Amino acid sequence: MDTNLNFYSNLKQTIQSLNFETIAAERKEVLQPLIDYLQNKVNKKERINLILICTHNSRRSHLSQIWAQTAAAYYDVKEVYCYSGGTEATALFPEVAATLTHQGFEINTIAEGSNPVYAIKFNDETLPIIGFSKKYDAAFNPKSNFAAIMTCSQADEGCPFIIGAEKRIPITYEDPKLYDNTDFQSAKYIERSLQIATEMCYVFSKINK
């Protein structure tokens, strides 16, 4: 599906290559609560805030935030604002930025340091997604009226209660960190990013506007 947004060509190719048939039936059941939440918000014409949460806000939560925001734009679901956070702050792992660049995003570093800040763009017309590591309750993120999407089992188990969340939805992924500093590192980050991209695009493709 093409929208009126002029996505970068390599990114558009990545999205068009995604195959929803690769999502198992039991996995679609995991994704359904997010579809239901989004559809309810769209029906009510309410702003949609999602905070994608993982332990360190360094890998899976960023991939999920970026692909969810991109999928919302690609499928033209309005008023979607995606954030990410952790139970602690570390830094966005460099392989995440490298993977997303490989898949067609334009990424610029706008602040250096131990916790760099990145501007991540899927086209030239839309404001960039701001990526940096933070706690889920950081001032940068909404304090209420959001869905907490738990992208790792450790955060899901370690945070039984997310203050301000109107909905909590576990959609967990295997950590590509398991393959850091191995011959499989690049391939596994690409694999995880594509899995998340496929699932987030599937979710937003199901929304009736």
Describe the structure.
The protein is 37% helix and 19% strand. It has 209 residues and is α/β, with parallel strands linked by helices. The chain has a single domain, classed as 3-Layer(aba) Sandwich (Rossmann fold). The longest helix is centred in the C-terminal third of the chain and has 21 residues, at 185-205. It starts with 8 loop residues before the first helix and ends with a helix. The relative contact order is 0.23.
Largest sheet: 4 strands, parallel
The termini sit apart by 15 Å
CATH fold title: Rossmann fold
The 3D shape can be described as globular
Number of helices: 6
How would you summarize this macromolecular structure in one to three sentences?
The protein is 37% helix and 19% strand. The chain starts with 8 loop residues before the first helix and ends with a helix. With 209 residues, the protein is of the alpha/beta class.
Describe the secondary structure blueprint for this structure.
Layout: H1 9-16, H2 25-43, E1 48-54, H3 60-74, E2 80-86, H4 94-102, E3 106-111, E4 117-121, E5 129-131, E6 146-150, H5 153-158, E7 165-170, H6 185-205
Parallel strand pairs: 1-2, 1-6, 6-7
Antiparallel strand pairs: 3-4, 4-5
